From TrEMBL:
UniProt keyword Amino-acid biosynthesis present: no
InterPro entries in the record: PyrdxlP-dep_de-COase, PyrdxlP-dep_Trfase, PyrdxlP-dep_Trfase_major, PyrdxlP-dep_Trfase_small
Protein name (Swiss-Prot/TrEMBL): Pyridoxal-dependent decarboxylase
Keywords: Decarboxylase, Lyase, Pyridoxal phosphate
Organism of derivation: Streptomyces caniferus
SUPFAM superfamilies noted in UniProt: PLP-dependent transferases
Family: Belongs to the group II decarboxylase family.
Length: 477
C-alpha cells in the first residue's frame, strides 16, 4: 500500500496507531508548553488580548500551501492551551467545568480514532453493546428497585431536560402513545422553581409548550407548601402537569426536598422530573448519597458525568425506570433501522436519541467506571465536597469575608464584607483579566455573591487560602 501524503494518514485500521503515535508526542509537548506559557488558570489580558494572540498564531488559517502537519498541530494546540481556562488549576472555580481524568481523556482518544457513529449497529457494533450495558448500570443506581432501568446518553443536562419535557409531553397524549399525531386539547404545563436550570424554560419554548409556571424559591429551594398550593390551583383548570425539581442548583448546589415533592406530585397526578445534572454523582458516595433520597420516584432524571464525574465533555444521561418510558422516541429510517433488520435482531440505535450522528461518549464513561468502581468515584466525590467545607471554614474564620451558607455540594458563595454588587463584579472581572483566578457570580435575594465551584478532587487547603488572598488583594479598603 502506498504511503499517504503527510498529514493524510488515517487513525483507524492496523496502521492507524502507528500513524497516530508521533502526533501524540507533538500534542503532549504543545499542551505542556501552552500551559507553561499561560502559567495560571486563565490567560491574562482579557478577550481582546486572547483574540489577538489566536489570530496572530493562526494567520493565515487557510493558506494556499499548508505548513505541514506537525507545525500546524503544535502551533494550534499550544495556542489553545496557552489561551485556555484550565479547570485543573485549583483557582479555576467559576463553573461546573471539571478537570477530566487523564484515564477518561485517553479513552476518548480511542473513541475519536475508531470514530463509531452511534446511529446504526453496523457503524458501532461493540460501542452499541457497551452503551447498552453501561447506561443500564448507571440507571440502576438511580432506580435500584426497577426491573429494567435504562438511560439515554446525551450531551448534558440541557439535552436531558429537553428530552424529559418531550417525553412528558408525549406521555400526555390522550392514549399515552407517541405514535398518534394528536395532542391533548390542553398542553402540558411545566411547573418549576426559580432555582431551575434555564434549559427548562428553553425546552418548553422549543417544544411549543406554555411558559413554565415559575414558583419563588427565596431560600434557594422549592417549598412543598408552595408547590402543593400551585398544583391544587391548577386542578381542573389546565391539562397535564410536569413538576420539575433540582438536585444541585447551578447557583448554590442546593437540593430541593425530593421526597416531599414526589409525594405532592403523586397526590395531584403530576409527572415528576428531577434535574440532577450536578448532584446526581452523589449516588457514587456512601457518605452523601442519602441527600438524593427520593430520586428514584421521578419519572425521569438528568445526570451529568462531565461535572462530578470528571469526564471530558460531553457525558450526560437521562435515566428512566423502564424502557416503556422511551417509546415516544421511536423513529424509523430505512437506511439506519429498517424494520426487517430490527426484526432480525440488529439493535435499533436511532430510537435512543434525537440526534443521528453522535460520538461513542460511553467509552470514556465505561473505562472510568470499570477502573475506579463506585467506591473510587465516591471517594473523589467525598474529597471534592470536603474541600468545599474547608473553603467555607476559611471564609467563616476570616474577618473580612461573609459566607452565604454552608455548602451542600461543592459550590461556595461568599463575598468581602460590605462589598456592594458593583464592587463584586469588578473584583471578579479584574481577576479574570489578570488571569489570576476564575470565580463565578450568583445573584440571590440577598444580592450578588462570588461563587467558587470546586470540582478538582486534588485541591489542597493552601490552594483555597491563596484563592481568598487573591480576592482580598483586589478588594477596596
Amino acid at each position: 500500500m502506498p504511503v499517504p501524503p503527510a498529514g493524510t494518514a488515517l487513525a483507524g485500521g492496523t496502521n492507524g496507531p502507528r500513524a497516530l503515535r508521533p502526533f501524540l508526542d507533538t500534542v503532549l509537548d504543545a499542551l505542556t508548553t501552552g500551559a507553561e506559557h499561560r502559567a495560571g488558570p486563565l490567560p491574562s489580558g482579557g478577550p481582546a488580548t486572547v483574540t489577538r494572540a489566536v489570530r496572530d498564531a493562526c494567520h493565515p488559517l487557510l493558506p494556499d500551501h499548508g505548513t505541514g502537519p506537525h507545525t500546524a498541530l503544535r502551533t494550534l494546540v499550544h495556542t489553545l492551551a496557552a489561551g485556555a481556562a484550565d479547570p485543573a488549576d485549583p483557582h479555576c472555580a467559576a463553573h461546573l467545568h471539571c478537570p477530566p481524568l487523564a484515564l477518561a481523556t485517553a479513552a476518548d482518544l480511542a473513541a475519536g480514532a475508531l470514530n463509531p457513529s452511534m446511529d446504526s449497529w453496523d457503524q458501532a457494533p461493540a460501542a452499541s453493546a457497551l452503551e447498552a450495558l453501561t447506561s443500564r448500570a448507571l440507571a440502576a443506581l438511580v432506580y435500584p428497585r426497577a426491573t429494567e432501568p435504562d438511560a439515554l446518553i446525551t450531551t448534558g443536562g440541557t439535552e436531558s431536560n429537553q428530552l424529559a419535557l418531550l417525553l412528558a409531553r408525549e406521555a400526555a397524549a390522550p392514549d399515552g402513545s407517541a405514535t398518534e399525531p394528536h395532542r391533548p386539547a390542553r398542553p402540558l404545563q411545566v411547573v418549576c422553581g426559580a432555582n431551575a436550570h434555564h434549559s427548562i424554560h428553553r425546552s418548553a419554548w422549543l417544544l411549543g409548550l406554555p411558559e413554565p409556571l415559575t414558583l419563588p424559591t427565596p431560600d434557594g429551594i422549592l417549598t412543598p407548601d408552595t408547590v402543593h398550593t400551585c398544583l391544587a390551583n391548577l386542578a381542573g383548570r389546565t391539562g397535564p402537569v410536569l413538576l420539575t425539581a433540582t438536585a444541585g442548583t447551578t447557583d448554590s448546589g442546593a437540593i430541593d426536598p425530593l421526597p416531599a415533592l414526589a409525594d405532592i406530585a403523586d397526590h395531584h397526578g403530576a409527572r415528576f422530573h428531577i434535574d440532577a445534572a450536578y448532584g446526581g454523582a452523589l449516588l457514587f458516595s456512601d457518605t452523601h448519597r442519602s441527600a438524593l433520597h427520593g430520586l428514584a420516584r421521578a419519572h425521569t432524571v438528568s445526570l451529568d458525568l462531565h461535572k462530578l464525574g470528571w469526564q471530558p465533555v460531553a457525558a450526560g444521561l437521562l435515566a428512566v425506570p423502564g424502557p416503556a418510558t422511551l417509546a415516544p422516541l421511536a423513529h424509523q429510517a430505512d437506511y439506519l433501522n429498517a424494520d426487517d433488520d430490527t426484526e432480525a435482531g440488529l439493535p435499533d440505535l436511532l430510537s435512543r436519541s434525537l440526534r443521528t450522528t453522535r460520538r461513542p461518549d460511553i467509552l470514556k464513561i465505561a473505562v472510568t467506571l470499570k477502573a475506579l468502581g463506585r467506591h473510587g468515584l465516591g471517594e473523589l466525590v467525598d474529597r471534592t465536597l470536603a474541600a468545599a467545607q474547608t473553603l467555607a471554614d476559611l471564609i467563616e474564620a476570616h474577618p473580612r469575608y461573609e459566607l452565604h451558607s454552608r455548602p451542600l455540594l461543592s459550590t461556595v458563595l461568599f463575598r468581602p464584607t460590605g462589598a456592594d454588587d458593583a464592587t463584586l463584579a469588578t473584583i471578579r472581572r479584574t481577576l479574570l483579566t489578570d488571569g489570576q483566578a476564575v470565580l463565578g457570580r450568583a445573584t440571590t435575594p440577598t444580592g450578588l455573591w462570588l461563587k467558587a465551584t470546586l470540582l478538582n478532587p486534588h485541591t489542597q487547603p493552601g490552594d483555597l487560602t491563596t484563592l481568598l488572598k487573591l480576592v482580598e488583594g483586589h478588594t477596596p479598603r
